[in-house]
Amino acid sequence: MAIRHLPENSAFSTADLSSKGFKVHEISGAVDTLHNHARRDYYKVVLVTGDMILTYGDQTIGINGTILFFANPHVPHTVVHRSKEKKGYGCLFTEAFIAGRERAEILQNSPLFRIGANPVIPVNSEQAAFLSSLYREMLAVHRSDYDYKNQLLRSCIELIIHEALKIQPSQNGLKQKNAATRITHLFMELLERQFPVESTGDPLRLRTAQDFASALSVHVNYLNRSVKELTGKPTSVHIAERIAAEAKALLQHSNWSIADIAYGLGFEYPTYFNNYFKRVTGATPKSFRKRKV
């Protein structure tokens, strides 16, 4: 079967998104070019049916059927369609559009948008029908002159997220059943909350297991034991992998110098960062950036 690539929908305008903070569109028709997203400033929720390969951060996911896809703006992704046709709906919105503390917390705390989580949720025909009705409602409202349409659009987004959580309540495997699980969950949240790194003037503060233990008011041995028991990996490995992932993203998708990336990630000297990156990834920052795809 020939592989085809998913393009930007011809009706979609990022300028419209930038001015209004929201866009919804129908997905249909043949595909023949690459759909490749680097870092952007919007979240994306897509309901789509097709045969495709999704690359999301460092994950590669094969899909054949109907799925909901939740894209975090800080994770670059690429979709390659292997079927001739695609159908569904796409919704894009900025964090500013969501507005309000409670709705913002849905984005920040939801496992659906969490970096490192599986962003794909398979849906059955009944679930797809309900979700499609929400997208059709958003399409109709977005085109209308209804005075409170933004509030209604936000409610539809919230309903889609809640429906997805009902279908697949947890994707990170960290059930809060005991103290060890709870502290591991808090560690993972605290680790993720530091990212993305957006300024060299606000570098990473927590970079060691002891840093996190102090922030969580627990003994470092207890934190290490809990994290290893629940995830199978030491605390230091989680930290190293996440810093390395952010370094890769900055090297690939920003124009920061390697020195700026080093300072943004909390390294005192670029040489320290070079040695760290090579130890964790097996490549130097310079060579990694050169092979950027």
Automatic annotation (TrEMBL):
**Pfam families, from UniProt?**
HTH_18
Its protein name is: AraC-type DNA-binding protein
Q: Which residues form the HTH araC/xylS-type domain?
A: 181-291
What residue range is the signal peptide? none
Q: Which GO terms describe its molecular function?
A: DNA-binding transcription factor activity; sequence-specific DNA binding
Highest taxon listed in the record's lineage = Bacteria
This protein's UniProt keywords: DNA-binding, Transcription, Transcription regulation
> What species does this protein belong to?
Chitinophaga rupis
